[in-house]
């Protein structure tokens, strides 16, 4: 499989190159040149396979020049090693819980798969890779957990002091081993500036091998197409169409679903559900893409004013607005509606949603209203405990601490406090890598 930038069809890249590079230099995004097309026999065979087996089969054509099948199988076994329940919330309405991984959100799939690929490439080249990532809370945790104990890869995560939740801080700071958490006395922007500066620092890059774990890396998208195949294989029936509702921010998760559709998975519609950061629903409605500053909401992982994967949606649909809106249906909701949905679903069905899932619930319910012969699958992207304050208020009950994180509160916190000055950060990176500072 070759990959190209969405902005340049002349220069092909290998899978290994796009994983290590993350982003092309021309401001575009990497996309596979083609998609393998599967036939009905393939789809029928999926119902007998486990999710990690499905992952290996679906992903292999995209990586086969760079990753041997047996290595890919190990990577997938490790990335898909937690349960993915499909819970029936109400008739013909399922919640696919993508939140049983170590950081309790769907980003664990992408982060763990990408970590596996990078770990393999590092071992192949016998080099040490240093991943740098700034986080406002969530992504950093998924990356840190994904790379935990990966040979040949060291991870440094920068987070703003006092601006992440206690749970998030514990997820970043209790791992140890090859994961280092730096607590920056500043904002998320300050953290990001330090990381950006390090990537642009030629002297530093000559001495150590830096890499990013960017959320728009192709290696994070491919595993996000797998659970669409999985859910379809478990819930398909001859009578019903299947649709997916995806709580969306940067639109990476829904892009994974569109990849599955390009491979032949028979899905008519995807439901893009957002909070009031509704640039994509507005585009679907009016035909114009107008990025704007983000607005803070209770479903804060979707507070995105300029979704980075919009470029990929345009590539998939050839910039054809009519075609895009035929396949993707946009819906958006306010915080009040979101919190009401949490309360309503708990009362009526005894099921607990997180705020992101609640936005998706509203959208899917609205879409299904009046449509018969359709099974709706909601991608529940985060565990309610991650947003305990809002959820507990909405349902009027305390949430139980899930077993996935029950030991987090007994572990020792390891962090390196630091100021905002770049020189301090650079010295730290050099020293950690054993490079002498003059
Ligand atoms: C990241 C995230 C989203 C949005 O996913 P995108 O791929 O950015 O659209 C939704 N819900 C949760 C809980 C997330 O962490």
* Known CATH architecture of the domain at 83-104 and 219-395: 3-Layer(aba) Sandwich
* CATH fold-level name of the domain at 83-104 and 219-395: Rossmann fold
| Helix-residue proportion | 40-55%
| Topology, number of strands | 14
The major beta sheet can be summarized as: 6 strands, mixed
- Helix-strand makeup class: alpha/beta
Unique ligands: pyridoxal-5'-phosphate
Task: Name the beta content range.
Answer: 15-25%
Distance between the ends = 45 Å
Strands ordered across the widest β-sheet: 4-5-13-10-11-12
Shape: globular
Number of helices: 19
**Poorly predicted ranges (pLDDT <50, ≥5 residues)?**
none
Query: Quick check: average pLDDT?
Result: 94
Based on CA atoms alone, the radius of gyration comes out at 21 Å
Q: Class of the domain at 83-104 and 219-395, according to the CATH hierarchy?
A: Alpha Beta
Could you explain the architecture of this structure?
This protein has 438 residues and is of the alpha/beta class. It has a domain at 83-104 and 219-395: Rossmann fold (3-Layer(aba) Sandwich), CATH 3.40.50.1100. It has 19 helices and 14 strands. β7 (153-160), α7 and β8 (179-184) form a beta-alpha-beta unit. The N and C termini lie far apart (45 Å). Residues 105, 107, 138, 247-253, 301-302, 356, 381-382 line the site of pyridoxal-5'-phosphate. Pyridoxal-5'-phosphate binds at residues 105, 107, 138, 247-253, 301-302, 356, 381-382. Residues 96-364 form the Tryptophan synthase beta chain-like PALP domain. It comes from Mangrovivirga cuniculi. Residues 2-80 form the Threonine synthase N-terminal domain. It holds the Pfam family PALP.
């Amino acid at each position: 499989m070759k990959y190209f930038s969405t902005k340049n069809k002349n220069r092909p890249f290998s899978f290994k190159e796009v994983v290590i590079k993350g982003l092309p230099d021309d401001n575009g995004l990497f996309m596979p040149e083609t998609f393998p097309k599967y036939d009905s026999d393939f789809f029928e065979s999926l119902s007998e396979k486990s999710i990690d087996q499905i992952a290996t089969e679906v992903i292999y054509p995209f990586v086969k020049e760079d990753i041997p099948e047996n290595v890919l199988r190990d990577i997938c076994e490790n990335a898909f090693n937690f349960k993915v329940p499909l819970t029936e919330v109400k008739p013909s309405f399922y919640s696919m819980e993508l939140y049983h991984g170590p950081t309790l959100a769907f980003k664990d799939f992408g982060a763990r798969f990408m970590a596996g690929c990078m770990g393999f490439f590092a071992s192949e080249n016998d080099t040490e890779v240093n991943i740098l990532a700034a986080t406002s809370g969530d992504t950093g945790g998924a990356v840190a957990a994904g790379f935990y104990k990966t040979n040949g890869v060291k991870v440094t995560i920068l987070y703003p002091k006092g601006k992440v939740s206690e749970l998030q801080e514990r997820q970043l700071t209790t791992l140890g081993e090859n994961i280092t958490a730096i607590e920056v006395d500043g904002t998320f922007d300050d953290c990001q500036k330090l990381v950006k500066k390090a990537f642009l620092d030629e002297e530093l890059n000559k001495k150590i091998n830096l890499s990013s774990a960017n959320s728009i890396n192709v290696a994070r998208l491919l595993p996000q197409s797998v659970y669409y195949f999985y859910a379809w294989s478990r819930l398909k029936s001859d009578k019903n169409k299947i649709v997916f509702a995806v709580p969306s921010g940067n639109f990476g998760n829904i892009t994974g679903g569109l990849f599955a559709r390009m491979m032949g998975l028979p899905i008519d519609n995807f439901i893009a559900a957002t909070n009031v950061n509704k640039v994509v629903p507005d585009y679907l409605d009016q035909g114009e893409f107008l990025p704007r500053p983000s607005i803070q909401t209770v479903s804060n992982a979707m507070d995105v004013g300029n979704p980075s994967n919009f470029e990929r949606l345009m590539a998939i649909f050839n910039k054809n607005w009519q075609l895009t809106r035929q396949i993707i249906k946009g819906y958006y909701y306010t915080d009040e509606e979101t919190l009401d949905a949490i309360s309503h679903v708990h009362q009526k069905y005894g099921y607990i949603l997180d705020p992101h899932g609640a936005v998706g619930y509203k959208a899917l319910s609205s879409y299904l209203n009046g449509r018969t012969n359709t099974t709706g699958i909601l991608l529940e992207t985060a565990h309610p405990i991650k947003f305990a304050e809002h959820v507990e208020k909405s349902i009027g009950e305390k949430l139980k601490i899930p077993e996935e994180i029950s030991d987090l509160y007994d572990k020792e916190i390891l962090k390196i406090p630091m100021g905002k000055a770049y020189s301090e950060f650079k010295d730290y990176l050099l020293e950690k890598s054993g490079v002498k500072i003059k």
